[in-house]
Design goal:
- The structure is a single chain.
- By secondary structure, the chain is α/β, with parallel strands linked by helices.
- It has 15 helices and 15 strands.
- The protein has 2 domains: 291 residues, Rossmann fold (3-Layer(aba) Sandwich), CATH 3.40.50.300; 109 residues, no CATH class.
- Helix 5 crosses helix 6 and helix 13 crosses helix 14.
- The N terminus and C terminus are likely disordered.
- Keywords: Coiled coil.
Length: 550
């Protein structure tokens, strides 16, 4: 059994799976998050990334899987061989049934036969140890814990249930029965509301449930201190929904732990890797960070023959392939981001920069004419007024001109521009700015400038004079903008010629990955008809394998 925590130093000899898990803390590590990191996201249902802050320095001893489990994993490969060869009817056995049995075996060997012994080193027993330890350590605070398990949900048919096993062992250690509850017991909205309230108060301190029944809508975070994932769901969204129960606004604990349990040399580690791959693709689609065109069905629920075979035989190439899968995926993402930026730069070189430069050159030419017009019709240095034409009438007094402008405003019955007159060599228009809710005078020369008006007649003339003087400022800004844009174009032409610096590394790793896929027979996937009796964590799938395109 392997218990995955934030420590990530769980080294024992000859354990490829353990090394993979320990080196991949970003996938399987326990999460410890200060409440402050999510207080600003009230109501957030899902966390998009696994964050690592304030890791707990706890070394967890790793126990191996049982001999019985090893033999049973090997038998799964034999079943897959028969299915692949067509030696068994798909209604009797198929890849989905084998996959589900593999998941059950990874959870607890008694899932396949309840007469098998309770293996002391199983991840269920490790989970019980942790739950009890945390229950005891947080007794004064009455902190609560969530336990997620989609397989082996409680049934009243006398068969073995992980739920009943965990509760029985906790009660035997001294945890009151009333403090260990199943979400399945709350079969009405009223009962569920009561159960949630007791959990928030600390009266129920261990709540077990499936993602389906205890995912979205479960608001019991007030006292939650730890969450335990004893099995791996198929969909990345399910893991996010689980984490979202504890990592959310309203949790009174300053930090929380999330434990994920993996049984060594079973399907567990590989299933987590598959979920990680699905999550990466989904994240790329949702964030549009890379031009991904296709990916395997996120809801696929059956492993192929090749995958089952390699997991059962303990092939030494498995770890190398798993490592390479992640490395290649990261390199592909880097390259796709590089190409996206390169294509965007090429578009700017072809379209944006030339158009921008032409527009700026034309604007500069127009502004030069307007600056020259302003020089030819200067504002007097004293308080004299050069005169203004308003509505066909020439006003030689500043006060009269200002009043005429305000009167013209009052006569407007449409926000659209109307001719106003002339001032200092510029044609003028009057308009109403509906966004700013004020009147404006548009100074029209080779270019144009809008000048906001106020209710002060004298002040409006000053505003118009200031607007005319600012043509020179606009010319200076446009000339600087042209120089910067021209420099950006030259820089872009150089940048777009640069290659992806990790291209050779990607080619080498892709070639090696192809070799490994051939060695592991991973280049052939089976399209099996599936069936069987699903648990809450087993999704029946009757589709052929497909890809999504976009």
């Amino acid at each position: 059994m392997a218990l995955v925590t934030s420590k990530g130093t769980m080294d024992k000899e000859n354990s490829n799976v353990r090394k993979y898990i320990a080196q991949r803390a970003e996938l399987l590590g326990a999460i410890r998050l200060p409440n402050d990191t999510f207080k600003g996201n009230a109501g957030t249902e899902v966390v998009s990334d696994i964050l690592f802050l304030q890791k707990r320095d706890r070394l967890i001893d790793i126990e191996p899987d049982s001999e019985m489990q090893k033999e049973m994993v090997a038998s799964l490969a034999e079943r897959a061989e028969k299915v692949r060869g067509g030696g068994v009817d798909s209604s009797v056995d198929n890849m989905l049934k084998i996959t589900n049995d593999g998941r059950k075996l990874a959870l607890d060997q008694r899932m396949l036969n309840d007469m098998l012994p309770d293996f002391e080193g199983s991840k269920i027993n490790a989970c019980v140890d942790n739950i009890y330890r945390i229950w005891e350590e947080t007794a004064d605070k009455k902190s609560a814990q969530l336990v997620f398990c989609d397989l082996s949900t409680p049934k009243n048919d006398g068969t073995f249930s992980v739920y009943n096993d965990i509760r029985k062992k906790l009660i035997e250690r001294g945890v009151p029965e009333s403090e260990v509850r199943f979400i399945h017991e709350a079969d009405t909205d009223v009962k569920k509301k009561e159960l949630f309230q007791k959990t928030r108060k600390g009266e129920v301190r261990v709540l077990l449930g499936s993602t389906q029944k205890m995912g979205a809508g479960t608001n019991v975070q007030d006292r939650l201190i730890a969450l335990h994932d004893v099995d791996c769901p198929w969909r990345p969204s399910d893991l996010e929904q689980r984490s979202g129960r504890i990592i959310r606004q309203g949790n009174s604990n300053p930090d929380v732990d999330i434990y994920r349990y993996v049984t060594e040399q079973t399907f567990d580690a590989y299933l987590y890797q598959l979920v990680e791959g699905k999550q990466k693709f989904a994240s790329q689609i949702m964030t549009s960070k890379s031009p991904v065109r296709s990916a395997e069905d996120i809801d696929e629920t059956a492993l192929s023959y090749a995958e089952i075979k390699m997991l059962a035989t303990g092939n030494p190439y498995i770890k190398e392939k798993m490592d390479l899968d992640i490395q290649v995926q990261k390199l592909k993402l880097l390259k796709s981001n590089f190409l996206s930026e390169k294509y965007a730069l090429e578009d700017k070189i072809i379209k944006y920069y030339p158009q921008r430069i032409t527009a700026l050159e034309n604007r500069i030419e127009g502004l030069k004419q307007d600056v020259e017009t302003a020089k030819q019709h200067p504002k007097p240095t004293d308080d004299r007024f050069v005169g203004m034409e308003v509505k066909g009438v020439f006003y030689s007094e500043k006060a009269d001109a200002g009043k005429a402008i305000i009167e013209a405003c009052k006569q407007m019955n449409s926000p659209d521009p109307i001719p106003l007159g002339k001032y200092r060599g510029f044609e003028t228009e009057l308009l109403f700015n509906t966004a700013e809710r004020n009147y404006e005078v548009r100074l029209k020369g080779a270019t144009s400038r809008n000048v906001p008006l106020g209710d002060d007649a004298h002040g409006n003339i000053i505003r118009l004079d200031n607007g005319i003087e600012r043509f020179a400022e606009s010319l200076s800004l446009a000339e600087n903008d042209l120089e910067n844009t021209t420099n950006q174009l030259e820089t872009a032409k150089k940048e777009v010629q640069k290659p992806f610096i990790q291209e050779e590394e990607l080619k080498t790793k892709l070639a090696r990955l192809d070799e490994l896929n051939i060695l592991l027979n991973m280049d052939k996937r089976e399209n099996e008809i599936v069936g069987g009796e699903p648990d809450e964590g087993e999704v029946p799938n009757t589709r052929k394998e497909k890809t999504y395109e976009r």
